[in-house]
Design a protein that fits this description.
The protein has 330 residues and is α+β, with helices and mostly antiparallel strands. The protein has one domain (3-318): Sulfite Oxidase, Chain A, domain 2 (Alpha-Beta Complex), CATH 3.90.420.10. Helices cover 21% and strands 23% of the residues. The strands form 2 sheets. Strands 1, 4, 5, 8, 9, 10, 12 and 13 form an 8-stranded mixed beta sheet that branches. The protein binds ligand MTE and molybdenum atom. Ligand MTE binds next to loops.
């Protein structure tokens, strides 16, 4: 009998990349949100009270945050993504396998949040939500963002360099890697596709310590001038803009310094497709699609998002190229 490989839904995290699904998904999005993104001038015209309501809901439970803009990261080579679009086109598999999980994600309980920093450090520490907002000076950085599915965006994050936290906890000489763990509670994180069991929850990610202390590595506690909406990974998430988006674990509850490479969620599910390193490299295709180009969500026309060549290290080579051995460094 021939062996026919029928992938399970959870083996296809990037199914939206197929042109068909991509188009359908975009249609759904256009129908639901274009009005919402244009609330100011078009509400009366479109009569979109409902859309306005959902726009407000998508940014619910956020508070204004003050942060100084980091002058090194004030502009990029492409337009900033519409805030509402970024807040309603998400990957957060704990809450479902589609891009429209922002409503489900409102179930995330962010009150009394704690982040445990532990492992090979001299000063282990528990950060409360208030600590996260007040311990380190907050800054704003506008970064490119590139999902492994070949869509891209540009958003202004608010937060602090990971390096500041590393210095505060003083890793020991043995510490070489760091594992980041996302919130998980099967009573709450009810992704409809994921009742099958066997998935390596909680979502985890990892970095080498020298990656974590790189200038670019960032903890975001806010976006677009306010705290993070839940669907973006409230109250704190990783942002490592030279790597694919899945490296940026959301809603972090634990940070552990280790001396061996930690296991990570997607790398455990499909090591051949989702590497631990996962740097943005246009010449290294995903086994199921090319990474040479990307689409800027929301840019260009409603029906065809602007396409651009993918940049090596997502355009951040001047910061990170020295960390890696690549035959053709650019
Ligand atoms: N805990 C957790 N973190 C996660 C994910 C996830 O499913 N769960 N998805 C990742 C992926 S694939 C991407 S592209 C980004 C998406 O971030 P955004 O929805 O805020 O744009 O979050 C990353 N962090
Ligand atoms: Mo992604």
């Amino acid at each position: 009998m021939p062996f026919i490989h029928v992938p399970k839904p959870w083996q296809l995290p990037e199914r939206d990349v197929t042109p068909e699904a991509y188009f359908l998904n975009r249609r759904r999005f256009v129908k639901g949100l274009v009005g919402a993104g244009m609330i100011g001038s078009f509400v009366p015209l479109l009569g979109c009270q409902q859309q306005q309501a959902s726009a407000e809901a998508a940014l619910a439970n956020t508070n204004q945050l003050n942060a100084s803009s980091n002058p090194n990261f004030v502009e990029v080579d492409r337009p900033q993504t519409n805030e509402l679009l970024a807040a309603t086109y998400n990957n957060f598999y704990e809450f479902g396998g589609s891009k429209s999980i922002w409503q489900n994600a409102q179930a995330l309980p962010t009150d009394n949040w704690q982040v445990e920093v532990t492992g090979l450090v001299n000063k282990p520490r528990l950060f409360t939500q208030d600590d996260l907002l007040s311990t380190f000076p907050l800054e704003e950085r506008i970064y490119r963002f590139r999902c492994v599915e070949a869509w891209a965006m540009v958003v202004p994050w608010l937060g602090f360099p990971m390096r500041a936290l590393v210095e505060a906890v003083e890793p020991t000489a043995q510490a070489k890697f760091v594992q980041f763990t996302s919130y998980y509670n099967p009573e709450v994180t009810k992704g409809p596709d994921f009742h099958l069991g066997g998935l390596p929850w909680p979502y985890t990610e990892g970095l080498r310590l020298d990656e974590m202390t790189n200038e670019l590595a960032f903890f975001a506690v806010g976006i677009y001038g306010h705290t993070l909406p839940k669907q973006h990974g409230a109250p704190i998430r990783m942002v490592v803009p030279w790597k694919y988006g899945f490296k940026g674990a959301k809603s972090i509850v634990k940070i552990e310094f280790t001396n061996t490479q930690p296991s990570t969620y997607w790398n455990t599910i499909s090591p051949n497709e989702y590497k631990f390193e996962a740097n943005v490299e246009p010449d290294v295709p995903h086994p199921r699609w090319s990474q040479a180009k990307e689409r800027l969500i929301g840019a260009g026309s409603k029906f065809s998002w602007e396409e651009r060549p993918t940049l090596l290290y997502n355009g951040y080579g001047e910061y990170v190229a020295q960390l890696y051995d690549r035959p053709n460094q650019v």
